[in-house]
Amino acid sequence: MDALISQLQRQFRDYTISLYQQGFLDDQFTELKKLQDDGSPDFVAEVLTLFFEDCVKLISNMARALDKTTGTVDFSQVGASVHQLKGSSSSVGAKRVKALCVSFKEYCEAKNYEGCVRCLQQVDIEYKALKTKLQDMFNLEKQIIQAGGRVPQVDIN
Amino acid sequence: MVCEMETDQIEEMDVEVLSSMWPENVGTEADKQFNVEKPAGDLDTLKEVTIEEKPTIADLTRLPELMNSTQQGSSQLTNLVKQWEYMQDNAVRLLREELKNLNRQREEAEAKELKIIEEYKFESNEPENVPVLDETSDLFRRFRQKKRDALVDSKKIEIYEEFDTVAYWKQKALNLEKMLEASTERERRLVEKLGESLKTMESQSAPVQELTQNLKRAEGFLHFILQNAPIVMGHQDKDLRYLFIYNKYPSLREQDILGKTDVEIFHGGGVKESQDFKREVLEKGKASKREITFTTDLFGSKTFLIYVEPVYNKAGEKIGINYMGMEVTEQVDKREKMAKLREDNAVRKAMESELNKTIHITEETMRAKQMLATMSHEIRSPLSGVVGMAEILSTTRLDKEQRQLLNVMISSGDLVLQLINDILDLSKVESGVMKLEATKFRPREVVKHVLQTAAASLKKSLTLEGNIADDVPIEVELMGGQLTVTSRVNEGSTFTFILPYKVGTSDDYSDDQDEFSDMADHQSEPDDTAEGYFQFKPLLGSIYSNGGPGIGNDFLPHKVMLTSPIKLINGFVADPSNNTGQSEMLQLENGGYVNESKLETSSGHCPESAHQYENGNGRCFSKESESCSSSQASSEGGTLEMESELTVSSHREEEKGETDLKETAKPKILLVEDNKINIMVAKSMMKQLGHTMDIANNGVEAITAINHSNYDLVLMDVCMPVLDGLKATRLIRSYEETGNWNAAIEAGVDIKTLENEQVCVRSTNRLPIIAMTANTLAESSEECYANGMDSFISKPVTLQKLRECLQQYLH
What we know:
The structure holds two protein chains of two kinds. Chain A is an all-alpha fold. Chain A is built from six helices and no strands. Chain A starts with a helix and ends in a 10-residue tail after the last helix. By secondary structure, chain B is of the alpha/beta class. Helices cover 47% and strands 10% of the residues of chain B. In chain B, the strands form four sheets. Chain B has a seven-stranded antiparallel β-sheet with strand order 1-3-2-7-6-5-4, sandwiched between helices. In chain B, strands 13-12-14-15-16 form a five-stranded parallel β-sheet, sandwiched between helices. In chain B, α4 (62-69) crosses α5 (71-124). Chain B starts with a helix and ends with a helix. Chain A binds chain B through residues 27-28, 31-32, 34-35, 37, 39-40, 43, 46-47, 50-51, 54, 80, 83-84, 86-88, 90-93, and chain B through 674-678, 680-681, 684-685, 687-688, 719, 721, 774, 795-799.
């Protein structure tokens, strides 16, 4: 049983580090992890769930705002949503999403329609990718706990 | 015997038409036998069987009237008679025919005789000597004449006429004479026979004989079948006197039976019953069977199944009964034995199962007791460990908070140990050995202890104060003392207050469960004057006493979660928000219950009315000798909302110091942020740092919040809808400077007038407002400062940033 646990733990560590290295996550995520303790054991999961829900909502808002068929595109609305998303993503440590939001915002201010649309697509892809990755990481955590071990603290540096 | 009777009868009864012809004593009177059919089968078989004819006795004088009057009798009779008549008629006819024949013959013979005589006469009447030669001619002449006068059959003579000789004619005459003689003779004989058969007609009459034979055969069969059967049959008249009996008890004679009733013949059990039964059948007119047990001196105890049917005459009147009885003693015996056996079996089985059940129950009880003992022992050991360690710990160097926690630990531990001890004494309680005893105790310590443990166990939503009035002595012996325990209820919520108390063993015994209190500091003294029961009415009861296994969990208001005492102990947390000085502040979990009670004490014995405390279930906690009726259940159905009146005012210096702490311990922080996720993260971080925050989602809400209450720090997000952070800060600063919200109102913010008393006029201290910037152009630090922010934090917010901020702006 111990062999299994240590194997899983190694897997978990490697995976987590890879996520950081690939730029999916940044230090803010580490901060989030620090906030998880016995008092709030599922904190990270809860925050991330909320974040992804938020993503969906904001992206649909942006899509609607960028929908030319309803009339003129309201870039300020798009901008507001992007701002929200930027804030959220930076709070949870979703690095790539945040970076996209930055450029997205610029396009908005420049009222660059194609740029916005492109960014929107990319954001969509990106958040989904992140979601999958994080899902895998959580699964690993669950496996470790089920096997009777503890989830190791991953030191990125 | 039968035959004799027959013949006798015949002689006597030749006068009456029907019965005289009927062979009177036809063995049995079983009605069916009057059927005149031939018994089927080989009639001769009976010959090979010895038929012992059972004695039959018949009152033959009565028989004819019986035969005449009953339907059955007469039908049979008519059958026979008809047949006989037929036979008779036949016989007559046959005889007549014979007679006719004879007559005819006779006539013939006479005719012949006449003719011969004529011929003879004819010969003698011829005086003339007819010349021989001439004779014939003369004869011829005469004959010719005679011929005309002669009778029919003169042919024969004509034939012989040809010869016409005297000799011939003489011969002929002689012959004829002989013939005549013969026929006369014959006739005579026939007449004789006729006379004879007339006389002996009956005896020689074949059909009747046959009939008798048939009947005899049938009777033979009957005898044959019944000869060994345990059957008795009989006929009685309507007075139940015997007219006939078949297969009677051998020692009885004819005169013993005929003409008597059952009760006259037999004596003993069952006879009357059978008689009554027969009478009943006679009355009801319905044939039926019954099983009757006889015990007579004649044949001992026998059971008969008897069949009785009433007999009617042609007019429909009852004239008697037919009865048939079969001895079934053995069968009845067997039947009863079987029944009894089955009964015994069932009883035995029931007993067995009962025993088994008892065994099971006993086993289980044993096991339960065993388990109880083991369990308590097991629990006790680690507990002792805990308590021991706690005590050792108390000897080490501890700070105030730690010591307090430790005290709670120790007292709870002791209590639990005590509880376990008492669990083991459960059997004593059940047997009623547990007694009560009045002891001295120290109320303050008790209350303090209770408050401590209670508070410690529960989470913070409510506060409880304990106040003990100053005039309450340190040590109290409850008799004759006044102890009121009240508490304030915070916001109408309910909570439980636990006051454990101990009941020692004394003379009294109540119906209620034991409860425990911890009076560690004093010794219990038996009080001689009092009647020996505890009058302290603890309101609480239960976390300790009833939290233990099996002791009255139903005692408790069901909403209280009391699983085990230890689990409930958390830590002593004070609520700063209710600063009220001296009283001890304790917090309890929401949903706890408080038992309403009035602590009354009275001296001496406690009448029932005095016990008025209840717990949530309305049960009396008192420990009086009389059983206490649960009264005044102020609970309504499922909701046990009661306020407790507990005030135990105590002077505790310790608490004072602590209350001072409270003022500075909890800064009010306001977070102004619209993004949910950011809020969540920031809040969680603050929690880590040990602070709580209020939330506002935009500038307007922020202003409202600041208006409402005093904040020590504001974290202001810059980009927000409705009213962004910079503007909001500007407005707040203007309020600070001018003391009013005019600028805000101008800006369109809806400010409620200052009605809230809790808002105090701010001191010169300025509200620290920290901007949370996303580091965009619009949110540059210069902007922030220009708008009145004191500092900024760049997003994303981290723990470290927050900590530094707090350190800087909160003291």
